[in-house]
Amino acid sequence: MLIFVxxxxxxxxxxxxxxxxxxxxxxEASPMVSKQLSNTxxxxxxxxxxxxxxxxxxxxxxxxxxxxxxxxxGALFDAxxxxxxxxxxxxxxxxxxxNDDGKIVxxxxxxxxxxxxxxxxxxxxxxxxxxxxxxxxxILHKNYILADPTAEExxxxxxxxxxxxxTSGQLISLYKPGGPVLAYTSxxxxxxxxxxxxxxxxxxFLDKANSAMEV
Amino acid sequence: METDRxxxxxxxxxxxLVCSCSILHRSHGSAxxxxxxxxxxxxxxxxxxxxxxSENPEKASIEVIWKPKTGQIGxxxxxxxxxxxxxxxxxxxxxxxxxxTTSVIVQVVxxxxxxxxxxxxxxxxxxxxxxxxxxxLAVAICCSVTDSGCIILDPTKDExxxxxxxxxxxxxxxxxxxxxxxxxxxxxxPMAHGIMTSITQGAMSVDDYLHCLERGRAAxxxxxxxxxxxxxxxxxxxASKAG
Lengths: 215, 243
Hints:
Order of helices and strands of chain B: EEEEHEHEEHEEEEH
Helix content of chain A: 25-40%
Largest sheet of chain B: 5 strands, mixed
Oligomer: heterodimer
Distance between the termini of chain B: 54 Å
Number of helices of chain A: 5
Number of domains of chain B: 1
Number of helices of chain B: 4
Strand order of the largest sheet of chain B: 1-2-3-5-4
Number of strands of chain B: 11
Strand content of chain A: 15-25%
Distance between the termini of chain A: 33 Å
Radius of gyration of chain B: 18 Å
């Protein structure tokens, strides 16, 4: 089940989002962000995969997560991860029943006849999210740390560090793929402190957005 | 309190390292790097004239092709290619040969854990063998964290599956210099302590990450000594053949 969830995460960059993306073959950054997203979501154990199981050994939910970038202006992974978390927190799993043939059937609330079948999930419900990961991308340049860079800043300076922390303070990912500037311990600690601050802000923002959507 | 590892190693012990250079004839530089059962073959061609359309022709560009042992190239291999490309770009002096492309082909011979650090080490040895101008070498190491918080270096495939988290770290090679000690410092820390590349998998606390950094730095010093010996031995033997 874990394999299905991981392989179903895709990050698409259509040519509309950036002048450097050409139609046809996928953009260079696209598989990088997809793999990073899969790694982050599986590492954080944000969702309990047993929740997605319907009948042991027979049927389970498969979640497809497709993220489309409309405007690429830097820090793509941060935006992709935040949108993935918002989408998963908004996900609703419909109620399911198994009929006499052993097949899975959607249960409609209005259909009284189908209610006679044994329900597997009794009501429409949301996914339970445990500790939620949030990320912050920084650029290192000499002694400076530049948080949340734009596309122009990213193209000029080549050393990116992405720190992902979850709401319980665990380090989910620290991603620095090369770059001419070396990251020392003080820079790592500063990036982690900036990310902790951002985790609080984004968590509040997500809570407000979700509670506003409930009404 | 030391955990028993299945192959009898202590937590800080690396698997035996084997490095061979100049094993392919057509390539300008080649190297085979093995850490235990994990083995990677790297070949370097170039600098060749011309640059890809998406690259900057004012600098030398580096192209990395990653070939897995079996199957097609997927997202995992694409990510490895990108990490390797950016790591090698940061150690090469790219202003010397503008409008050229250097190809680095990495062939995985066997994967028994810690594959990406092995490939980075092999690629660096191949670049040296090809005579590509470098600022310094890069040494790569994999640290892993168990559920009980113990830190283990250079995990095997079986150990990787049981670990809570692991980190691939790349540091610059330690520098042996006749200059005064202060010139190798970058602020308050020596240059070899800076992180070039860091790729993590799994969740851990920030303190665990910093502990892994310390272990990784100590192990990279040993790796640096190993790399230096291998390269010096090769050049010495070639000089004796010429004489």
